[in-house]
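Entry: Nitrate transporter
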Amino acid sequence: MAEINVKQLRTVRIGFMPLTDCASLVMAAECGFDRQYGIRIVLSRETSWANVRDKLGSGALDAAHVLYGLMYGVQLGIGCQQQAMAVLMNLSRNGQAVTLSRALAEQGAVDGPSLARHMRNAPRGYAFAHTFPTGNHAMLLYYWLAAHGIDPLRHARALTVPPAQMVGSLRAGMIDGFCAGEPWGQRAIDDGVGVTAVTSQQIWPDHPGKVLGTTAAFAGSDPGTCRAMIAAVLDASRWIEASKANKEQTATVLAGSAYLNTGREAIARRLVGQYDNGVGGQWTDEKALRFHGDGEVNFPYLSDGMWFMTQQRRWGLLRDEPDYLGQAQAVNRIDLYRGAAEMTGTSVPSSPMRSSTLIDGLEWDGSDPRGYAQSFRIHLG
């Protein structure tokens, strides 16, 4: 590769939250994949998803590692000023978890069925935390609770807590459980304050995780930079999954003070799919956190974006039915992704829709979003 003139690189400011699934952005910058496409990624560690949202909206960030559901919440003006957004690619799949307190586990509540029995037999004010009202963790937490007959908004309080504060909140008894990304589920186990009740891949196998997001205005004004960002991250994602050694190196980098600033082992174990639920269960997860999968992970499927809208409608966050397909076509910039995929030799799926069967046995394929949103026994919308 020819020597690159650093002064000619286009600086791109990208925000991230200290979570394991920011790995492909971190390694794109650390390993120099960005410079191969004429950009220099400057990463900014953020303290909350609300902060990420506000900085994207104001232009303080060009792009961000961001919750899929948050992007659609802003696109639809849920709890904030409406702003047109752009999902450039999916950064990850799987690798989140619902954690219950050690106190609940000691009383026999270690999974969905036992939690439901416990809450019926010992009624009190239960509190479960997610990371953002319209985000992935809120929607996955609500879905899991409801699948076991627990109304997340009537039988409990739902609280918003930044990911890095989840373990401390659990230790202090402020919450009974939480849904968040790694390494915080593993940290709760390591610190002796929580147990893993369910992984997110058990709720929705191969579910979408965080995305590389920006505003529609930025995507419209600088599509070349957007394609360069996607291409750099595709290369980094491929590199992470190329070997166990690369995953181990990624864990070491992520553990540093500039990124997650936490114990390396808490990151490494679940990054390579080694799970311990804190109550005797240990397994190697075939659907652990993924970053590339020959591009299957990264493609911005329209049906994925539509699912979040169905759940936002289900829980009353959307008062009216949105144009599910139209909104997904506007937000998920498949055109930009295809350009970057061609640049990197990444395979592109034949269809922008995909099918999944979730924990309650219901199939989601995007064909009837309105009917799907209205089909649930437990709902508010």
